[in-house]
Predict the structure.
Amino acid sequence: MVEFNNRLYAVEPNHGQIVSVGVDGSIASVLDVSASEGHIVPTAITSHDGQLYLGNLNQFPIEPNYARILTLGNSECSQVAAPGLDDTGALHSLHILSSKAGFTTVVGTAFGPDGLLYVLELSDAAGFPTPGDGKVVRVKADGDIEDVATGLVVPTAMTFGPDGKLYVSNFGAAPPGTGQIVRIDIP
């Protein structure tokens, strides 16, 4: 969930929806991702510079580099978007403005202090999630994707702290008591 334009935006992966919630409790459906993209299982959302960015898990078995980051906005575009259901001043519709492929099993997204997009991948191995194959990647200014941290064990979430360091829940999809928070210093 992320705050954007005075509303909270959340991803509902099972139905491929993005919903928003207002401070008054009003709920609106703002985008049916599955209507234009199929069942790509959207899982992570973040905002930056007036746009929303949506990552997807994709279906299993895992196909490396097939997950994407979709850039969303309320600008006109050629993609079909689902209209919003409320009239509370929220975006009445979101559109998919662009898409960048090359990711695998996206479970987290965040913009770093350097202004670059960081993406958490549950596992980048083909087949099914493999412990030790989770990683954090960064989208460089030229669009290239580079590894930042590898060897993570089924990580499930990440955030940048006020210290500018990246914190990742490692062993997030593991038995109770095995989870840990890993601090990553960004070069």
Notes: Confidence is low (pLDDT under 50) at residues 76-92. The chain has two domains: 1-103, 119-187. The longest strand covers residues 95-103.
